[in-house]
Automatic annotation (TrEMBL), chain A:
Membrane topology, record value: Multi-pass membrane protein
One Gene Ontology term of the molecular function aspect: branched-chain amino acid transmembrane transporter activity
Keyword list, A-Z: Cell membrane, Membrane, Transmembrane, Transmembrane helix
Name the record gives this protein: Branched-chain amino acid ABC transporter permease
Annotated organism of origin: Ferruginivarius sediminum
From TrEMBL, chain B:
Superkingdom assignment: Bacteria
Membrane topology of this protein: Multi-pass membrane protein
Species name: Ferruginivarius sediminum
Keywords: Amino-acid transport, Cell inner membrane, Cell membrane, Membrane, Transmembrane, Transmembrane helix, Transport
Transmembrane segments: 31-49, 61-85, 92-110, 122-143, 155-180, 209-226, 255-278, 284-302, 323-344
Main subcellular localisation: membrane
Entry's Gene Ontology cellular component terms: plasma membrane
Pfam families: BPD_transp_2 (PF02653)
Family: Belongs to the binding-protein-dependent transport system permease family. LivHM subfamily.
Signal peptide: none
Protein name: Branched-chain amino acid ABC transporter permease
One of the GO BP terms on file: D-alanine transmembrane transport
């Protein structure tokens, strides 16, 4: 067997292993070995069946879908669990991306300083960069939250649209901050040297990486994204099942009774808004290191706000599994329609000469209609929110009874 | 300390603490107006500090009033929809753009006539404007029939309405892109539009006076419609209390349709004016969305006169601040004014005390 394929399979096995650990319905003692073997076998099959071009397409598709899944999880913390209407995801995404980029690049010197301007450059490691992305994004959210979150929910929607627009304007016009309208280039990719010169890797890893080329780096980055996605999922899922998460849901559904039970509503609202924004900032950081070159135009309302909303609404607001599922489906629809519009281009040309060049907007139209359809016909999404999230209630008879009751209620409202 | 000597000290709940009293004083309409006036004065002072001539500041102020007229046309429709239907319509910006482009399309179908000096447009622009207003209004009613009415019938929550309107914003925007493309368009490509020389070094185009005049005429028309006609009365009643209005025999669905028709028509007029003052871009309505919402909140939701007043304040602040600020940050100025309103007096300048 081709050595390169084996090496690729090892990388592909990581996301599959994580998926297996979540999905295999066995006890942990059995689940781990089964998932391990299953993931590696599946990875081998996939990498042998698909031609290498298609395989790398699949990998880069999964990276973007994984980044979107992190954004969707962040939005789920805000909207799904607390009911914040954040229409400015693009802003926090951009803050995260530019923060991580500024932290990890070196400040330009000499001739380069004429072409690239940035406020600072720390040459910090990747992990520090994305951590800073999350913290700064959360801090920006905190600043916005103070004046706006005390008020009605619809004001937050208006204010966040404004914030995203202003953040984009700042990154567009302030040259000193992050190279103004020009793109910020050369954002380092973590551990890229492993693929440039295998001697950089220690012992056994070097033999594994030997057959791979620098352009196969995306296989490694897929592992980075999926591991961080899994960690984010674990964090958000644990948080929402904790007492903290239950208070958030109480604040969302019954504000007055939550207040009556001694919960500080404003404080909880701000907390969930900040946590969600920090998760979005993390997604932005991951995007920056994947894209290598970023500029303000990447963070427009369509790609960074609207599509994330469609993902969450389709997957199921209030459900973290649904959020991830929705991200992969919608990113699949978005990528798939690129082929579709390519196919119908001759037909479009017959209608009007200008249409083929504008066929990208047909995809916008499709996504907009999709969201309208979800709002009209299935506002709860593919996987509806669980009514009972407490681990303790689920184990007792009360919990099971309540679950059944909740399901029946849902069936009633659906019919 | 004072409170102990005060005779009303026996009823402490009746004598508010000092900080509460300050807060209450800040929340009055007068305080809000004083703060806004102070902010406008600060902007002018900042411009003077930057060595901007008085004539230029005056010109910028007049341009700001014109821009306020454009924003006002959009925000009157927005505030009517917000008041009657109780949700922020995020697709209002797209309706503004649609109005500008429909005007453009109608103009292309018409023969080009003489220029009506001193304006830069001919009669075909006026005809196109009159055609596009009901067209966009009907489009708004159509969207309401397909989307919002179904949500109303299900008693859906406010957030679902907001999200549906976001979907419709992107829907309309992608249709505009599909039909007209992403290039800039002009109503009159390359036509000279000289500014008039007025006293005090004022330089204003005749078109800008037309924009303001049209805005004033339309606002008066809306005012008369709301105050003098039966439909206006029904509209105000529905905005105030939909259930009660229905009980009194008002056909709320008809009221809603009229609201959309008016909102769409005013948005179309605003879009055409904005296109005349600058150029047509598919994003133009989105740029106006933030100033429009700021004007609506500042002038109290559901209050057309307040929306126009807010729009004028925001228009002037945006234009005069360009003397020392990158003009790209115009929406940022509107945003700061909006946040200030939310902090001091969330119910706006013209709202009752809650």
């Amino acid at each position: 067997m081709d050595q390169a394929l084996v090496a690729k399979s090892v990388f592909l096995a990581v996301p599959l292993l994580l998926l297996g650990l979540k999905l295999v319905p066995l006890r942990w003692a059995l689940r781990i070995p089964v998932a391990l073997v299953g993931a590696f076998v599946l990875a081998l099959i996939i990498s042998n069946l698909l031609p290498s071009g298609k395989l790398s397409y699949l990998v880069s598709f999964s990276i973007m879908a994984g980044i979107y899944a992190i954004l969707t999880l962040g939005l789920n913390t805000q909207w799904g669990f607390t009911g914040h209407l954040n229409f400015g995801i693009a802003g926090f995404f951009a803050v995260g991306a530019f923060t991580s980029a500024l932290f990890t690049t070196a400040a330009p010197t000499g001739v380069m300083a004429q072409y690239t301007q940035q406020a600072f450059g720390f040459e910090a490691p990747f992990l520090i960069g994305i951590l800073a992305a999350a913290i700064v994004s959360g801090f920006v959210a905190f600043l916005i939250a103070i004046p706006v979150l005390r008020l009605r929910m619809d004001f937050l929607a208006i204010a966040t649209i404004g914030i995203a627009e202003i953040i984009r304007l700042i990154f567009q016009n302030e040259r000193w901050l992050a190279n103004g309208p020009q793109p910020l280039r050369g954002i380092p990719r973590p551990l890229h040297c492993l693929f440039d010169e295998p001697s950089c890797a220690p012992g056994p890893l070097a033999t594994l990486l030997q057959p791979l080329e620098p352009r196969d780096y995306i296989y490694f980055y897929l592992c980075v994204v999926t591991v961080l996605l899994a960690l984010t999922y674990l964090l958000v899922e644990t948080a929402t099942r904790s007492p903290w998460g239950r208070v958030l849901r109480a604040v969302r559904d019954e504000e007055q009774s939550a207040a009556m039970n001694g919960k500080n509503i404003t404080s909880f609202r701000i907390q969930s808004f900040v946590v969600g924004a920090a998760v979005m900032g993390l997604g932005g950081g991951l995007y920056a290191h994947y894209a290598v070159t970023i500029d303000y135009s990447h963070f427009n309302p369509l790609f960074a706000t609207f599509i994330v909303w469609v993902m969450l609404m389709l997957g199921g607001s209030g459900n973290n599994k649904g959020a991830i599922l929705g991200a992969f489906i919608i990113w699949g629809v978005w990528s798939g329609t690129a082929f579709l519009t390519g196919m119908i281009e001759p037909t479009l040309a017959q209608i009007s000469q200008d249409l083929p060049a504008r066929s990208a907007y047909l995809r916008w139209l499709l996504v907009a209609i999709l969201l309208a359809g979800i709002v009209l016909y299935r506002p709860q999404g593919l996987i509806a929110e669980e009514k009972v999230v407490s681990r303790f209630l689920a184990k007792t008879g009360i919990g099971r009874g309540r679950r059944k009751q909740a399901r029946e209620e849902e069936a009633e409202t659906a019919s | 300390m004072n409170a102990t000597q005060d005779p009303t000290a026996q009823a402490p709940e009746l004598t508010p603490r000092l900080d509460e009293r300050i807060r209450a004083a800040l929340q009055t309409r007068t305080a809000m107006a004083v703060i806004l006036a102070g902010l406008l004065a600060l902007i002018v002072v900042l411009a003077i500090v930057q060595d901007v001539s008085a004539g230029r500041i005056l010109s910028l102020t007049v341009w700001g009033i014109m821009l306020g007229g454009v924003i006002g046309l959009g925000s009157i429709g927005l505030t009517l929809c917000y008041g009657v239907l109780k949700f922020p319509n995020f697709s209002h910006g797209a309706m503004v753009t649609l109005g500008a482009y429909v005007t453009f399309a109608v103009m292309q179908a018409l023969p080009q006539g003489e220029v009506l000096r001193p304006f830069s447009f001919g009669w075909e622009f006026l005809v196109a404007l009159i055609v596009s207003m009901p067209v966009v209004g009907v489009v708004a009613i159509g969207i309401d029939r397909v989307m919002y009415r179904r949500l109303r019938q299900r008693n859906a929550s406010l957030v679902l309405f907001a999200m549906a309107s976001l979907a419709m914003a992107f829907f309309l925007r992608s249709i505009i892109y599909l039909v007209w493309g992403s290039d800039f368009r002009f109503y009159y490509e390359g036509r000279a539009n000289p500014a008039l020389d007025l006293p005090f070094g004022l330089r204003v185009q005749a078109d800008q006076f037309f924009i303001l005049g049209l805005a004033i005429v339309l606002v008066i028309a809306v005012y008369l419609l709301l105050e003098r006609t039966k439909m206006g009365k029904a509209m105000r009643a529905t905005a105030n209390n939909p259930e009660l209005a229905q009980v009194r025999g008002i056909n709320t669905e008809r009221v809603v349709a009229w609201t959309w028709l008016m909102g769409g028509a005013l948005a179309a007029a605003g879009g055409a004016m904005y296109g005349l003052a600058s150029q047509l871009r598919p994003e133009m309505g989105f740029w106006l969305l933030l100033p429009m919402f700021a004007a609506v909140i500042m002038g109290s939701i559901g209050n057309p006169r307040g929306a126009l007043a807010g729009a004028l304040i925001i228009g002037v602040a945006q234009q005069v601040s360009t003397a020392f600020l990158n003009p790209a940050y115009g929406p940022g100025v509107a945003f700061i004014l909006m946040v200030l309103t939310l902090l001091i007096r969330p119910q706006g300048l013209f709202g009752g005390t809650e």
